[in-house]
Amino acid sequence: MLVYVYRGSASFNGRRVSAGEIALFDRSGGEILAEGAGAFLFLTGMPLEEPIAWWGPIVMNAWDEIETARRELAEGRFVKKGARVVDI
């Protein structure tokens, strides 16, 4: 889990985090004590446990996928379909 502080500052389990900073928590779980007047966002999810290949802004699972993505980016074919935004 992580917390991103986007305004002000706050303390999480006694550690101060300021605007623009991210605090990472270990996977052991447990309670988190949040104190302060900052505005923050908690993010959590299940670990994927998959390999990661990274180049610039592109993240894939294998280097051959990165090479394909780089080629498509250079040829202007990287974005396959525009994102659809749904208001809820």
Question: What does this molecule look like?
Answer:
The chain is of the alpha+beta class and 88 residues long. The protein has 2 domains: 2-43, no CATH class; 48-79, no CATH class. It is built from 1 helix and 8 strands; from the N terminus they run ββββββββα. Strands 4-1-6 form a 3-stranded antiparallel beta sheet, with no helix packed on it. A hairpin with a 2-residue loop joins strand 7 (53-55) and strand 8. The longest helix has 13 residues, at 63-75. It is elongated, with a radius of gyration of 18 Å. The chain starts with a strand and ends in a 13-residue tail after the last helix. The mean pLDDT is 90.
How is this structure best summarized?
With 88 residues, the chain is an alpha+beta fold. Helix content is 15%, strand content 34%.
Helix proportion range: 10-25%
Order of helices and strands: EEEEEEEEH
Q: Look at the helices and sheets and give the structural class.
A: alpha+beta
Strand content: 25-35%
Structural features:
single chain, 88 residues, 2 domains, three-stranded antiparallel beta sheet, 15% helix, 34% strand
Helix and strand arrangement:
Elements: E1 2-7, E2 9-12, E3 15-18, E4 22-24, E5 34-35, E6 39-43, E7 53-55, E8 58-60, H1 63-75
